[in-house]
Amino acid sequence: MASAQTAPTTADTAAAAPPSRRRRLGGRDRLVVFAMVAVPFILVLWLVWLPALASVALSFGKWNGIGSTSNIEWVGFQNYRDIATIYPPFWPAVQHNLIWLVFLFILPTMLGLLLAVVLDREMKGSRFYQTSFYLPVVLSLALIGFIWQLFYSRDQGLINDVLGTQVDWYGDPDVNLWAVLVATAWRHTGYVMLLYLAGLKSVDASLREAAAVDGANEWKTFFQVVFPVMRPINLIVLVIVVIESLRAFDIVWVINKGRNGLELIAALVSQNVIGEATRYGFGSALAVIMMVISSVFITIYLRIVFKEDRA
């Protein structure tokens, strides 16, 4: 009698049992899924991986681009040895890229963070200020270079008119790098501001309230509570700064094609590939060096992100 009372009924068993059948995709659905996977894969393979692998292979040879690829003379690591030993612009370009990295990390990043903190207070007209500071981001660096020519022109520039000087800010190798960095910072600051502003909006308000209850002032609340919570944003900003410092090209190319104090690795690649020299193997070796440096930082970033996701 007791066993009859405790035994589950047929309806209960049927309700508790998981469904034994899964809905199978039809022929059209399978085709759509296959296209959604195959098309992006083919595009990435064709536009990213094949050119990258071709550049790596070509970096071990000499070729002037005339004739078929059968005319390539394979020289092993000779291009890399020449870059490091007998190519004068390379080490100044590395130094300039490092200066670019440090400058972007210090000035625009800190200024963008400061602007984000101020605009996060929902001050009057904050939307207008956000749009104004972000507006340069939608412009290309080449156009930024032309716009700042209005300030840097030796004869008609605003800076020389105000200071009463005749400095060629874009042409003088002693100052042109810093002039270009200031123009680049004008654009980069708005990008960093937007990233940090999005991060501040996502911070749980209860964290600020708990810090206020504990007696922490705004300074301690930000640096001890809010800023550590935005660690993913900090990593993204760091990776963006590294990539921007390595791929900096267009603004120096429109000024003086990356010469006379504005040597950068990306400009050296273009000088050797599409310039008068047309040394595809040598230029590919420079591009591979850029790719390796970028991959190191991107790999570190992805490793940290995946580690946090697993945790």
Quick recap of the structure?
The protein has 311 residues and is an all-alpha fold. The chain is 70% helix and 1% strand.
Topology:
Elements: H1 2-6, H2 10-16, H3 27-58, E1 61-62, E2 73-74, H4 78-85, H5 90-119, H6 126-134, H7 141-147, H8 149-152, H9 158-163, H10 176-201, H11 205-213, H12 218-229, H13 231-247, H14 250-256, H15 265-273, H16 280-310
Antiparallel strand pairs: 1-2
Helix pairs in contact: 3-16, 5-10, 5-13, 7-14, 11-12, 13-16, 15-16
Can you tag this structure with a few keywords?
single chain, 311 residues, mainly alpha, MetI-like fold, two-stranded antiparallel ribbon, 1% strand, globular
What does this structure look like?
The mean pLDDT is 84. This protein has one domain (91-310): Orthogonal Bundle (MetI-like fold), CATH 1.10.3720.10. The chain has helices at 2-6, 10-16, 27-58, 78-85, 90-119, 126-134, 141-147, 149-152, 158-163, 176-201, 205-213, 218-229, 231-247, 250-256, 265-273, 280-310, and strands spanning 61-62, 73-74. Helix 5 packs parallel to helix 10, helix 11 (205-213) packs antiparallel against helix 12 (218-229) and helix 13 runs antiparallel to helix 16 (280-310). The chain has a two-stranded antiparallel sheet with strand order 1-2. It is mostly helical and 311 residues long. The chain has 16 helices and 2 strands.
